[in-house]
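Hey, resending since the last one bounced:
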Amino acid sequence: MNLSANLYITAKGEDEIKRRVYKLDMKKRSLLILLARPQSIEYLTSKSVLPPQEFSATVNSLIQDGFIATGDSAAVFVPARPSSPATQPPEAGSTIHIEDDVVISEAKFLLTNFCVDSFGTDSQEFVDTIRSCKSVGDIRYHLSTIYAAAEMRCPAQIPTLQNVVREINATA
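The structure tokens again:
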């Protein structure tokens, strides 16, 4: 993975930051706090007080435990060879992929409806981020967060989310 790859906090990570649900140690929490906004690995290494090996172990642990993810489908961070391809686990939802030329307004509408139906009163944060999407890349980024939240909070809704993604892709 290259050092310019972006990491972002997942819904599980946000729960830890806001409510200390998982009682992570201070090292892991400090990295989560640095990810209030998506940040590059290079930025995180410059801001973190952790030594490089401990930093990479902590990032890998947070990725594997689902607290953070990368913009490239949760690739494992390998600091020794930043230009080499990363090892990627199988994608959680292989049908969860947005095509390049979908209609953004339709994607925003369908994802908003899914979030409201699935998360109820907890959907406002998701709705706000969906509204801020200006590109397909933004939609993809937020879809991964929505997928992670659905897996954690309402796993029975995953097939519905997959159907929503199919509808979005049909607009391409």
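The chain has two domains: 6-70, 104-169.

Sorry for the duplicate.
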